[in-house]
Write the structure tokens for this entry.
Amino acid sequence: MENNNNNIYPVFDKMLGRADKEALLGQRGLMIWFTGLSGSGKSTVAIALERELQRRGILCRLLDGDNIRTGINNNLGFSEADRMENIRRIAEVAKLFVDTGIVTIAAFISPLRSMRQMAADIIGHDDFLEVYVSTPIEECERRDVKGLYARARRGEIKDFTGVSAPFEAPEAPSLTLDTSRLPLQQSVEEVLQLILPRINKEK
């Protein structure tokens, strides 16, 4: 059977490049990748960051576990292999946004270092900033209105990160936030201090 890939001819040399897109937007594309346990505050900080960037006139896109899992990755489960594929697809999509000059925010547990390393490899290490939301598991459980941690501890949910599946903390994140200690606005401010010098493009 003929390999259809032989009939695919990339046209990237004929397309407008990243520099053209960034010049149009007056900003640089960047990936801010939030990682941490369920309930750590990843999505809360990411949503607040998106709103603040919007207020400042910076085009951004938020990718969150819930909206990805119900769409492009709705055929994946939570085995380690499926989680790896989940992150791979997210990274490939994110790279398209970043290469278009869009500030892209991801909020995913992404529990293994190998997953986050893969994402950085796909997106590009120069464009990838890892933010570790290090909120202690005790606080994450206290916040758990859905009762997921309790169900996991009863054995009703398999492969639940932090209970029956591992979480590997980043060894050298770009930024660490403990939302049990930092108010939301301060967390957002710390991220802004990290990313704004990378995003702002002289017009």
Remarks:
- The helical segments are 18-25, 42-55, 65-69, 80-99, 113-123, 137-143, 148-153, 184-199.
- The radius of gyration is 18 Å.
- The longest strand covers residues 30-35.
- The CA atoms of residues 30 and 126 lie 9 Å apart.
